[in-house]
Q: What sequence folds into this?
């Protein structure tokens, strides 16, 4: 029995999520990488998805504005004053 | 004396997903208990760290339910109050982060219910988690020798190499995220922005792992498609 092949780009794009999440079987991964090696548009699609995920993970790093932080600290201070002593 | 009504965590550690590495205030349940104890002692620095680590995520999650930014900010403020008031009941059954995100979502849902604009979760899941292709079928050739190959090639995104491009991409992705349907938006925020595992995301949102996977797949595909549309529009100008 020959190696598994992924000939159609339409099939490849459905596997990109699992590929990026390291959730593909070794056989599927090899077939997908073989397809990518000869398919510029699917390589572009993969790069687009990587950009989406890399950008998403960088969104979490922004701090809240100073005025919001001040407001919340006031809330915390009020809570400290009225909570029962521990 | 400090009242410790929470129980020590004895469950397994969870692996972090490979693609997200946001900064977090805690690294494990022991650290969570230390944070809770510091808050109960009234340590301002502990609360500042929590606010800096989670406030942006709180706002994104609230905005999935409450689209108006001012209303969402109010929901988030209410969630912080609610978290502080419930703090002594934190038992470490989940991480502090998961527990806090759960509170935000409960407060946001209650807000929507109070506005009588509520849609049952099951209806949202049915609507948003239906399986559909990652890329519209019309982007591929439908017949001939090259059937299933790209008919219209995807356009490369600008390279995020410069700080300016990274900032622009972040602003556009914020815009795209806020345009996603509520559950898809929340799943993508929790998994891809905050780096939570699928299991944690399911626990917070009260959805099955199958639905979580479909919602994440659809959210990412939609986010990519929307970004592509934005860049294509800019290229035409």
A:
């Amino acid at each position: 029995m020959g190696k598994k092949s992924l000939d159609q780009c339409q099939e490849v794009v459905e596997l990109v999520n699992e590929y990026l999440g390291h959730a593909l079987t070794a056989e599927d991964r090899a077939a997908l990488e073989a397809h990518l090696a000869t398919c510029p548009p699917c390589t572009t699609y993969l790069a687009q998805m990587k950009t989406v995920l890399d950008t998403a993970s960088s969104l979490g790093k922004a701090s809240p504005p100073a005025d919001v932080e001040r407001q919340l600290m006031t809330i915390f201070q009020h809570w400290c004053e009225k909570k029962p002593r521990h | 004396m400090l009242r410790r009504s929470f129980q020590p965590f004895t469950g397994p550690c969870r692996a972090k997903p490979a693609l997200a590495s946001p900064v977090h205030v805690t690294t494990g349940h022991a650290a969570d208990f230390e944070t809770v104890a510091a808050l109960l002692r009234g340590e301002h620095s502990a609360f500042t760290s929590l606010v800096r680590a989670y406030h942006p995520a709180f706002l994104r999650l609230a905005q999935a339910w409450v689209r108006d930014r001012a209303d969402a900010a109010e929901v988030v403020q209410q969630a912080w109050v609610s978290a502080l008031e419930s703090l002594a009941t934190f038992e470490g059954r989940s991480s502090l982060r998961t527990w806090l995100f759960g509170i935000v979502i409960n407060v946001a849902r209650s807000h929507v219910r109070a506005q009588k604009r509520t849609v049952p979760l099951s209806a949202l899941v049915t609507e948003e988690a239906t399986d559909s292709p990652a890329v519209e079928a019309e982007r591929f050739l439908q017949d001939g020798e090259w059937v299933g190959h790209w008919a219209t090639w995807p356009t490369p995104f600008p390279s995020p190499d410069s700080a300016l491009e990274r900032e622009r991409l972040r602003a556009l992705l914020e815009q795209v995220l806020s345009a996603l349907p509520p559950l898809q938006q929340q799943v993508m925020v929790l998994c891809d922005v905050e780096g939570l595992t699928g299991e944690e995301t399911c626990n917070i949102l009260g959805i099955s792992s199958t639905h979580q996977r479909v919602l994440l797949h659809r959210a990412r595909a939609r986010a990519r498609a929307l970004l592509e549309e934005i860049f294509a529009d800019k290229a035409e100008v």
Observations:
- Chain B touches chain A through 63 residues (CB under 8 Å).
- Confidence is low (pLDDT under 50) at residues 1-24 of chain B.
- DSSP finds nine helices and no strands in chain B.
